[in-house]
Specification:
By secondary structure, this protein is α+β, with helices and mostly antiparallel strands. The chain contains three helices and four strands.
């Protein structure tokens, strides 16, 4: 099992639109493509606490991650939702992702 952490820093003033895209389109599309959302929230303390959405997904392995993201990104619903959300300009200043293994940490 692996976890993917995705961090989206909004263009100043656009966090509301990022959250709206996430709740109205991203979450339903994640479910449609069998992607397990483990957690989601906004950064409260730390770098980018003014405008960052962070969420974590769980996958069986890297092949599962790649297959499911490939299907979601190719879904016409995603392209339409992103285009509509960005009609007034870009939403994202930066995006960072990390993939973590679920193996216990031992000394």
């Amino acid at each position: 099992m692996i976890f993917e952490v995705r961090e989206y820093v909004a263009v100043p003033g656009r966090l509301g639109a990022v959250v709206e895209l996430f709740t109205s389109a991203t979450v339903p599309l994640l479910a449609k493509h069998g992607m397990e959302l483990v957690s989601a929230g906004r950064t409260l303390i730390g770098e980018h606490s003014w405008g960052e959405l962070v969420y974590t997904l769980r996958f069986a392995d890297l092949a599962d991650l790649e297959r499911r993201w490939g299907a979601l990104l190719a879904d016409p619903e995603w392209g339409a939702a992103l285009a509509a959300a960005e009609a007034d300009g870009p939403l994202f200043q930066t995006m960072r992702r990390r993939v973590l293994d679920a193996a216990p940490v031992t000394a």
